[in-house]
Amino acid sequence: MKVEITDLSDEEMELVVDEANPYFVNTLRRILTEEIPQMAIEDVIVYDNTSALFDEIITHRLCLLPLPWDDRFRFRDKCSCKGEGCSNCTLHYTLSKEGPCTIYSRDLIPEIPDYAIVDPSIPIVELKEEQRLILEAEAMVGQGREHAKWQAVSRASYKYYPEIQIDNKKCDGCKQCVDACPNNCLGLENGKIFVKDLRSCSLCKACVEACESGAITVNGSDQKIIFNFETNGNIKAKDALLKAVELLDEKYKEFAKKLSKTV
Ligand SMILES: [Zn+2]
């Protein structure tokens, strides 16, 4: 297997995985979206809410805020506190504001300063004159398969690596394929069609349909896959992928262990 990182930032990553297959990449995709542990608000105690929104709407918005992640946190049911909630499995936040103002995610004050909300400028609710919102929130570790609020990776997808072949004997340089391509993958130079941006090809085959002389063939390789994903900003893309690989490795080790006891 060959792996090439073609794009990397804190939140996004794109890889070309060669000599693999869609099943392997899809397994990674599912682990990224469903199994990477994350922190999200689970319980909210509302002491005072005279805003225009119901308690339930505000708490729903709070639960979807991306919180910072740290590997030291444990699932509450596997923590040494036995589900009671301690600093190893729970984060506490408080919010106390009086209008007129707009409450943003930064107004949710963490008990431990290092764990402020990842994006400070997410609006929660607007307060008019003399309206108040006072609450406490408790965050715990969970996984995306339980609820989307624990989803570390918001988007993960893959596509077959495009293979575009141009038969220059048949091509008359009419340029219709260049104009038909929605992703601007093809170009024309000296009367010849050439591929100028292969990875942007979405395999839509609009160029094949536009080419009356049948000079273009487009196929996708199921052995070479373009895989990309984006996190919510609470975990770095590189760390998310490494965590997904670690979780996959644990699954195989557990499977081998169980198998060795039965065979
Ligand atoms: Zn605990």
Mean pLDDT: 91
Q: How many domains, in number, for the residues?
A: 2
CATH architecture term of the largest domain: Beta Complex
Count of β-strands: 12
Determine the CATH topology of the largest domain: RNA Polymerase Alpha Subunit, Chain A, domain 2
Uncertain segments: none
| Structural class computed from helices and strand pairing | alpha+beta
CATH class of the largest domain: Mainly Beta
- Shape category: flat
Helix/strand order? EEHEHEEEEEEHEEHEH
What is Rg?
A: 25 Å
> Can you tell me the CATH superfamily of the largest domain?
DNA-directed RNA polymerase, insert domain
Approximately what portion of the residues adopt beta-strand conformation?
A: 35-45%
Oligomer: single chain
| Largest beta-sheet details | 4 strands, antiparallel
Could you tell me which ligands this complex binds, including any ions or cofactors?
zinc ion
Which sequence of strands runs across the widest sheet?
1-2-12-9
Helix run count = 5
The helix content is 10-25%
Q: What is the gist of this entry?
A:
22% of the residues lie in helices and 36% in strands.
If you had to describe this structure to a student in words, what would you say it looks like?
There is one protein chain. This protein is an alpha+beta fold and 263 residues long. It folds into two domains: 107 residues, 2-Layer Sandwich (Gyrase A, domain 2); 113 residues, DNA-directed RNA polymerase, insert domain (RNA Polymerase Alpha Subunit, Chain A, domain 2, Beta Complex), CATH 2.170.120.12. It contains five helices and twelve strands. It is flat. The mean pLDDT is 91. The site of zinc ion has 7 residues, from loops.
